[in-house]
Amino acid sequence: MVIIAGCVIKKDNKILMVQEAKESYYGQWNIPAGHADETEQLTETAIREVYEETGCKVKLTGVLPIVKVDINGKSHFHVKFMADLIEENIKFDKKEILDVK
Asked: Phi-psi region for residue 12, left (φ > 0), alpha (ψ -120 to 50) or beta?
């Protein structure tokens, strides 16, 4: 089982998105999200992933429905939180993220 947590961050009626640099998702746009560490709370995962992928700090404000997707016989649970920007400071690792908009 794989658990992925991330955030939908809305500002000025737009959603903050990241463009993936990873080979399997190269060029695709997504919300900032990633795999939860085994001992990590999902809220911590979402906040950490947003920071790692965008450089922004957020405050979680709600949770969206949890989605289960089966990929190659393995269950992936996607947990998406709604979040407000606390600090907008766009910076990212170009090995993982191509762009943030």
From this structure: left
pLDDT digits (tens, 9 = 90+) for 3-23: 999 999 998 999 999 999 988
CA–CA separation, 54 vs 41, rounded Å?
A: 20
Residue 55 — pLDDT band, cuts 50, 70, 90? very high
What is the C-alpha to C-alpha distance for residues 77 and 58, in angstroms, rounded to an integer?
A: 22
Taking the C-alpha atoms of residue 27 and residue 71, their distance in angstroms, rounded to an integer, is 20
**Domains of the chain with CATH codes:** 2-100 (3.90.79.10)
